[in-house]
Amino acid sequence: xxxxxxxxxxxxxxxxxxxxxxxxxxxxxxxxxxxxxxxxxxxxxxxxxxxxxxxxxxxxxxxxxxxxxxxxxxxxxxxxxxxxxxxxxxxxxxxxxxxxxxxxxxxxxxxxxxxxxxxxxxxxxxxxxxxxxxxxxxxxxxxxxxxxxxxxxxxxxxxxxxxxxxxxxxxxxxxxxxxxxxxxxxxxxxxxxxxxxxxxxxxxxxxxxxxxxxxxxxxxxxxxxxxxxxxxxxxxxxxxxxxxxxxxxxxxxxxxxxxxxxxxxxxxxxxxxxxxxxxxxxxxxxxxxxxxxxxxxxxxxxxxxxxxxxxxxxxxxxxxxxxxxxxxxxxxxxxxxxxxxxxxxxxxxxxxxx
Amino acid sequence: xxxxxxxxxxxxxxxxxxxxxxxxxxxxxxxxxxxxxxxxxxxxxxxxxxxxxxxxxxxxxxxxxxxxxxxxxxxxxxxxxxxxxxxxxxxxxxxxxxxxxxxxxxxxxxxxxxxxxxxxxxxxxxxxxxxxxxxxxxxxxxxxxxxxxxxxxxxxxxxxxxxxxxxxxxxxxxxxxxxxxxxxxxxxxxxxxxxxxxxxxxxxxxxxxxxxxxxxxxxxxxxxxxxxxxxxxxxxxxxxxxxxxxxxxxxxxxxxxxxxxxxxxxxxxxxxxxxxxxxxxxxxxxxxxxxxxxxxxxxxxxxxxxxxxxxxxxxxxxxxxxxxxxxxxxxxxxxxxxxxxxxxxxxxxxxxxx
Amino acid sequence: xxxxxxxxxxxxxxxxxxxxxxxxxxxxxxxxxxxxxxxxxxxxxxxxxxxxxxxxxxxxxxxxxxxxxxxxxxxxxxxxxxxxxxxxxxxxxxxxxxxxxxxxxxxxxxxxxxxxxxxxxxxxxxxxxxxxxxxxxxxxxxxxxxxxxxxxxxxxxxxxxxxxxxxxxxxxxxxxxxxxxxxxxxxxxxxxxxxxxxxxxxxxxxxxxxxxxxxxxxxxxxxxxxxxxxxxxxxxxxxxxxxxxxxxxxxxxxxxxxxxxxxxxxxxxxxxxxxxxxxxxxxxxxxxxxxxxxxxxxxxxxxxxxxxxxxxxxxxxxxxxxxxxxxxxxxxxxxxxxxxxxxxxxxxxxxxxx
Amino acid sequence: xxxxxxxxxxxxxxxxxxxxxxxxxxxxxxxxxxxxxxxxxxxxxxxxxxxxxxxxxxxxxxxxxxxxxxxxxxxxxxxxxxxxxxxxxxxxxxxxxxxxxxxxxxxxxxxxxxxxxxxxxxxxxxxxxxxxxxxxxxxxxxxxxxxxxxxxxxxxxxxxxxxxxxxxxxxxxxxxxxxxxxxxxxxxxxxxxxxxxxxxxxxxxxxxxxxxxxxxxxxxxxxxxxxxxxxxxxxxxxxxxxxxxxxxxxxxxxxxxxxxxxxxxxxxxxxxxxxxxxxxxxxxxxxxxxxxxxxxxxxxxxxxxxxxxxxxxxxxxxxxxxxxxxxxxxxxxxxxxxxxxxxxxxxxxxxxxx
Lengths: 354, 354, 354, 354
Prior knowledge:
The structure is a homotetramer of 354-residue chains.
Chain A: E1 5-6, E2 11-16, E3 22-28, H1 38-48, E4 65-67, E5 71-72, E6 75-76, E7 81-86, E8 101-102, H2 108-115, H3 131-144, E9 149-157, E10 160-161, H4 184-199, E11 206-213, H5 227-236, E12 241-246, H6 249-252, H7 257-260, E13 278-279, E14 282-283, E15 288-294, E16 303-308, E17 313-317, H8 327-349
Antiparallel strand pairs in A: 1-2, 2-3, 3-7, 4-7, 5-6, 8-16, 9-10, 9-11, 11-15, 12-15, 13-14, 16-17
Pathway (chains A, B, C, D): Metabolic intermediate biosynthesis; chorismate biosynthesis; chorismate from D-erythrose 4-phosphate and phosphoenolpyruvate: step 7/7
Cofactor (chains A, B, C, D): FMNH2
Pfam families (chains A, B, C, D): Chorismate_synt (PF01264)
């Protein structure tokens, strides 16, 4: 039982506080013999890192990953892969005012209650900085299941939604704009929205949609590790996530069976795909798609009432460097977690028949 | 790694096919010394069992659980608790027509592809009959965290929604009607809807809301086993579930931080509760609430095109006894899974401080 | 974390008290498609069961295993395999005198201290009756790795040892005598010894040697799940075991490197095999062999001083039906646990290279 | 499932190759609030590190551990504890001759067969350098169960044994000599023996005995995670170990029940302790003691025949810096692993009763 681990056969275990010495992790169960594309990994980290554009936090971290083991002459050896990302740009003084003040809708209060002690600098372990570890592991996992095409993108910011089904989008355009929305027109509106929100010292929520294409049949375990249950758990592990739906999702709950069933073609594919590529917890070869809801970032630049650890009422105003909308930077995180889930099940599936 | 297990310290492992000899499981990690209320367990099973009312399947199973170990003179002993539920009312002949035909939006095709073999009778392991095991384990877990009040209820059927916040509902009325909706007026409409759907040989989706009250602070592990991530995984494990949201959920994704933040009172409680009782993956003592989306049952009583294992196009019409709407019977399942998650974290939390 | 489970990918979880309703378990992770030889499983159970001969306990249990799931039309389906063995010949009254008396060198005292409650009938969960579950699981595992030849045998009883290396023994003769020693001359002496001991109301220890031949190369994980470490853990899980050694074992601790090293032949085999078929925790294709030490059974038929749960000094004399020497019945248990370990690593090894 | 992890609630996961950039690990599940004694940790590392005396390898590593997370202002915070030990004194050139030659009784051949690739420098992951990670984790675990007194010591080198029971030894003298034997007279003979062996370019085996005193009652889980089974697994994980016995061990296999049973005193202690402080897998409060057998180090300084990866016969002579006897440096490793096992069970035991 490890609560800083994710995955089963392919397992990543992590550590690190936002303003500690370093963050990092260990990837265990990775098969031997993969030629590692290090640039691809660093590229994913760069997509996630702060300071990339005007609509994300201006904190600058080089976020350079150093691999420490498990790779020899460029290839995985089958032994555990240790990696480390040094923290270099901590402005911990920005957080001194948080020493004993509980920021609203943050984890300060619950950590203190649970552990009786808390590294208050930048949220400590509760910071989304942790997700840089996940991006490293996910980028490696992606290389293991390279035939699967995983694409996430910003599907809404506040009340601005892409009004097209994903099949009409060109995923190669996702990186063309800073909000990571492949629909240029929607992207423009989203960016304006975020800029406006930031100017007001406020923050805004949004959703990300993720699509996995060219799926093999048979991934997922059918009872407690259903493919969508593991994807859901992975997504709900990401900071600020409040909801997960796949296939028809919440809309499916309003439908009739005669509308919702996906009729088979002779080759085993289906005419519709309200199932979202998963039946009985197992991939059926159709596209997997799901949607993830993010709440607005809790740190806002206006004053809010709160309490301190002595249960005294006080005021707090956000300092430090924060994202007005977490969604653009969460796109690579969602792809990474999806890759981890799929690679894990891909390994497991190799041993399900004699 | 066990894919028929759920939980960490409190772990339930299960087995059983819908039309096999029996289903059952093992509950491991249950502490010694609890006086077991067997009637309460059987009562939960009765809530879930088929044939209770006119809007659920008419299959009749006594669903009597027999405990085989781990309980001595009425008390848990700390050893593993084995239990068994015999299958008694299998009409397997109803399923002979399914031998090699893949029912649309069922798991027949994916099981065959994954394992190369499949117990086709009643869906085998993929049948929701498995959830009777979960209800047994959950009913026992409920007794471990008896101070927490867990209440689930039908919050929508098709497009009929309760139009009140849960705080205005009286949960003691949930069992007063066969659709398990504590709002009598909505219940009546839902029941009519289901009857109408059943008459048409069709099925309908719906949602269940679950509320956990009188919560202790500190449950949940903050990285990969966030309280809401485990709840989400638990819910997504239930047959026919397509989505999960907690607190503000998908609505939160449209909101601004200044609207969404829950302002603290001096005692650590919060004025609003858009967080849904969880901050940073850890319970904060406020009510936990979440919503689960169920698709319509895939087995409908009208003819549909499909394929068989030889990839030939054929026709299928639902036989057997099926639910026109799965939601009423899923209410106790959701409570059971919630109890399992909370009891597990309750145990874990005992060892987080020296 | 399950403390009634053994194995990783192939995992068995068990339950059951000696004088409860039943014992049983769940085998998870077993691949689909194996044609099960049920007779072979029952045969292993028969080897272990009580009442087979004059030198073992006269308790009579039919020990018939019933498979409840996971096998369809004679083949494994890849779903969890539940099984149950009903307890039928409990003479619990034999144990009434144990209600609150702690038998010396038994687990009565420690269970009571740990759990505050204890099923005192026949030792409850601490009884070696549990090992019938292991034999079922192991017998199935044997069929998965059928190419490996696993043979255990009694290598000593008290101070009577087989004085030949295992290579000179004919394992087909192990079942020819009731002590399960393939060397007829030694067997005779061992049987006389046990009869003499039983007549004196006493018990005697012994050792079992196990050999796995026709081993594939590559089984075992090299750090914390070394093949010999898992074998050692498996053996030390068996009731009454006090020691485990493999290859050169304790003798190896007296040797020099120049004597101990196994020199390679051109084909990768080695000239000697002091390594016991394992190098760096991984099988090298040579025979695996190890030796397991069993203490004498604690229940003796003469009077001993002891205490009760009120810490009062009292006397106890063994009643019930007990083995004068546990070793003959432990032979199939050791083979079963060996099969479980090897089958688990055999599955794992399938996914160690891309 | 992680094969580079040890423990259940208190879990350490490690990485690192002998001549890679660094080794390190993550300690998960450590409770919050412990004031860490960093000097005590470094002191344990110093006891294990190479180059301490004339009878161990002359490789010099500073072996300085850097903690990266999970500790704030000197106290554990309940989050995962990352640590790293940089490799600084790699003389990898010493190993160039091993590129494709398989050293006898090393893991070179089995790694290559299992993974198809191998970091040949210094044995890579199979090197005992890994155990430095274990010493770090164990030294921290020791602080969690500080009331238990854990003492390991060299009990034999080759055929030189201490001829006293452990009760007559003064453990405070273990560090008084370089062979770590608390009996000065035996120590002297052992040191001479090792010097003589080293001069001959050879190596020698030995045994270590470990004693845990002031034990709480109730540690250990009674079926598959018996206290002695976990200790055995831990010990068998250490490089070069060939055997494990506890309490009466292999001698117990020659005894009669009437001799072997430990008779209770009124306070629950026992008059003898052949059980080795464990009954039914659970500690009974008496001393735990066990003995571990180490084979001679496989790298010897004389020429041996071997093969290379092309299956050609060749010759090899040990280069590099190696231990003539591994036992003195293994003493702190055994204490560390014992501490890990005991601390893990100590945590688990907190939740076994309601």
